[in-house]
Amino acid sequence: MSPTEADAALAPERTQPSPGSDGPADGVRLRFDQVTLEYRTDHRVVRATQAVSLDVHAAERYVLLGPSGCGKSTLLKAAAGFIAPVAGQVLLDGQPVTGPGPDRMVVFQEFDQLPPWKTVLANVVFPLRVALKLPADVAQARARDVLARVGLGDFAGAYPHQLSGGMKQRVAIARALAMQPRVLLMDSPFAALDALTRRHMQAELLALWEEIRFTMLFVTHSIEEALIVGSRIGVLAPRPGRLRAEVNAHEFSFDNAGSAAFQSATQRLHDGLFPPAAAAAAQRRPAATADKAAQTASLQDAA
User: Fold this and answer.
1) CB under 8 A, 24+ apart: contacts of 87-90
2) What is the pLDDT of residues 251-288, one digit of tens each?
3) What's 186's domain CATH number?
4) Would residue 291 count as lying in a domain?
5) Do the domain assignments include residue 47?
6) Quick check: is 117 in a domain?
7) Global confidence as pTM
8) CB 3.0–4.6 Å: which of 90, 143, 209, 300 could bond 97 by disulfide?
């Protein structure tokens, strides 16, 4: 399968956001406008993305999906203000992103993103006090409320070392949501969890979204996770990352993950992401069919 055929497998390249989203007048909360990103190693400058343009609408769950090294996390860091584009711009509610800010909160993959000397409650309260300058009582009340929403109300006095990996991620999500950001940025937050915990965290994240309807930009390597967590999926080509296609995922959930439609969408994304593997599989299928036909004919002759 050629790159052109891979693009065709992922058509259409543009999809519409979910209706009814509150937010800016044009509905766009976060915009990447022809964004090219680079980073420097010890020996050279690496181009991570090339002229990426995409829109994340208010209250949307937008997932960036692609192979390792395609610039997914680099785009998320640009949205967070950690990296400045060498060309193009990132816009939040129509205003250029020029650096980090409390209006964009990041949840990372690592479990050690919580200061170990602070309790769960203190971890959530700290940015409310420092970044938002909330009074202590207001910050405490908001922190306790969001901890209850993620099912950790009874663990407010615990320390990070007393929590499981999944519970630590829930604290990180609670801390981010307590800030009431314009966009929640999630960089492969469940990748290091075991399969059962990962599924549980995905379900909890979706339940929180149904309740709060926050805007989310989510990075993953997993096709299945992208289809379940996302309402739209932006598929990136290998480095330098380019937006190959956008795919609707509104119809998919845990309830229909075993359906023919879900499996078809999974295969379509896989074929678009890994064209050489898809081509090799396509070449093997006719050979396997011919072998089976020959075996059937042989058995008929013997009869």
Assistant:
1) 87/34, 87/35, 87/36, 87/51, 88/32, 88/33, 88/34, 88/35, 88/36, 88/51, 88/52, 88/53, 89/33, 89/34, 89/35, 90/30, 90/31, 90/32, 90/33, 90/35
2) 999 999 989 999 999 999 998 888 765 555 556 656 55
3) 3.40.50.300
4) yes
5) yes
6) no
7) 0.83
8) 90
